[in-house]
Fold:
Amino acid sequence: MGDYEAGVLGAVTDSEIRELVRSELRRQLDHDLQRRITIGTGYAYKYDGACDEMKGLDLWHSQMTVQDIHRTRGWMRLHQPVDQRLSARKIPLGPWDDEYKRVCFEYTKGLVEYYDTLTLRDMGEHEFVGEYFKDESEAALTTAHPQQPQPQGPALSEVFKRYSAERIKGGEWKPRTQKQNEENFRWLSDHFGDVPIDSIDGDKMRGFKEMLMEATTRNATKNPKPLAPRTINNVLIAASALFNYAKANKYIRENPAEGLSIKMKKGKGASYDKFTMDDLGRIFTVEGLDGRNNTKLWRFGFLS
Structure:
């Protein structure tokens, strides 16, 4: 992207915005690699940017912060590094310009990829560089990290739409259940976006669980509270049910959400939630009892 003189700025293209962000984050990744090589076992992540909100955070909390910014559409929170790069390139954009907001969005998206790259480096792939940060010549080379097959499955929202339609058609979801499942699904869609469902693997779902453990209640204008363990489990169980449906319909091979719920210790004297009228109706319909062993129901006073 070349320099722009005030007053003659035309529309900044998406490719120019991406290159502005890519080059800056790639510079930071190259610096990170040099530190890993020279420091060796004493290496520790250090934020190398201009955002006050990120300074002093370790790698995990930095990653969670950026994911939260992206999930909540708070892209303008990263205006400081954006302002710095625009000033260095002499590009006269400000918060009132649509292009400025697009740069903030692209920078946030780039940071998500940036922290994914750093996480893989911490896991042993010290020289790993994500596809987002490669220039055209690098992308054309055959590297030690061959490209994985591109996801081919339907979008997350499409699978949820089909899943919901079947549950409603089969009478399994009443309006209240449907509303709760839609709310649970919104956590997934806000975190991942409308990606192909087969692009979500176990690592990404573990990141999703970690995000939930750091998240606060929705729509809380005052004193937001951390999500309760039961709420987190409800979201994870709903996600696992959705992925089981996707697996059964051959959209994915494995359920990436299986076994992720939090183990909860039941306190002394803790009680279970009461059955709702819908629950009782489903349990004691003729269809519900058909084909079952009813010989022990006398204990509950329902059969004589």
In short: The two ends are 83 Å apart (CA to CA). The mean pLDDT is 79.
